[in-house]
Amino acid sequence: MKGNVIVGQSGGPTAAINSSLAGVYRTALDRGAKKVYGMLHGIQGLMNENYIDLSDHIHTKLDAELLKRTPAAFLGSCRYKLPEIHEDMETYKKIFSILDKLEIEAFIYIGGNDSMDTIKKLSDYAIITGHPCKFIGCPKTIDNDLALTDHTPGFGSAAKFIGTAMKEIIRDGFCLEYSKGIVTIVEVMGRNAGWLTGATALSKGEDCAGPDLIYLPEIPFDLNKFSEKVKNLLEIKTSVVVVVSEGIKTADGTYVCELGTPIDFVDGFGHKQLTGTASFLAKQVANDLGCKTRAIEFSTLQRSASHLASRVDILEATQVGGAAVMAADEGDSGKMVVLKRLSDDPYQCGTEVKDVHKIANGEKLVPRKWINKDGDYVTDDFVDYVRPLIQGDVSPIMVDGIPRHLLTPKELSHRRAAAKKNEK
Description:
The chain is of the alpha/beta class.
């Protein structure tokens, strides 16, 4: 590489997103890049000329290892939708003038479906104007809903956390006896795709029966059938554990969480904020059956639990970051790196690139054949697909009994500002 590289992070973070950043940084330098810049808060930050030289923050090999073990987006994230090119050429002129000023040869964006929309539009503008900069997408999302890739970095670690936490919740439910039983309803992220919700079945084994019911958003949710199944389960056991996706809908397309509280917040890409499904259903069960209920929402723990990261996931996240730089260096643009499963036993996976136009704004859902006939559990084939992705551990670097993370640029800025204030 003869010029510079710039990298950004977008959308919801994961426990592995910074491993991809580390892969981009290391590979870019190895390939001869003069500088590797980081956009602060993605494309939105770049438009405000907020960026850093990553070499000012990653000084040693220990820093690089800390970065891989640090959850959330080190550079900061955003959910900013670029306008259509024909509607606002000035926005693109501004972005490309900044890229020219920084002598950017390759633009790498780490993100999910919406982030790939950004890569698509920027690469299209580069083609229209004949600009030489290369634009490559690096996959990231715990939702595992990106098209054309076997799976996405971030999903394996989230699945590992969810499977582990589920096992602990199930065991906790058997501790106390209640006259009418107890129903625990666990809500899992994933929006319209049930990959994460299905991963709760990983808890099932010789020492754990797994959840009693698993509801994915791919199947319409029937409140009456759900209540009847829970009632039948309480007749034969004192503790019932149900898992629901945040995005389950009734047959008419209404999100179940909307039945309790209307959704007010909608992001720049038109996505509603989904929360409250477990809480609504727990209240319904308590009212209908008169039993004790609990609602548990994993929320951001699903994507920030780096202490339980999958080694396979961290290695693959680093791999796709490096592959993105290599693709740009070899002349690709308007592409996204994808993971291609080569074998299950032993598990092997490689990388290749695919046209981002076939990926952006799409959703890869759980195949119907991987959901049981009644629509309330996943099949063994689903579990066999996920299990290789959660293997191995990445030990945190512990200091005083707590994992150590790498301070982000924002945290450093806040500390410096506080120090100056104290000096006065």
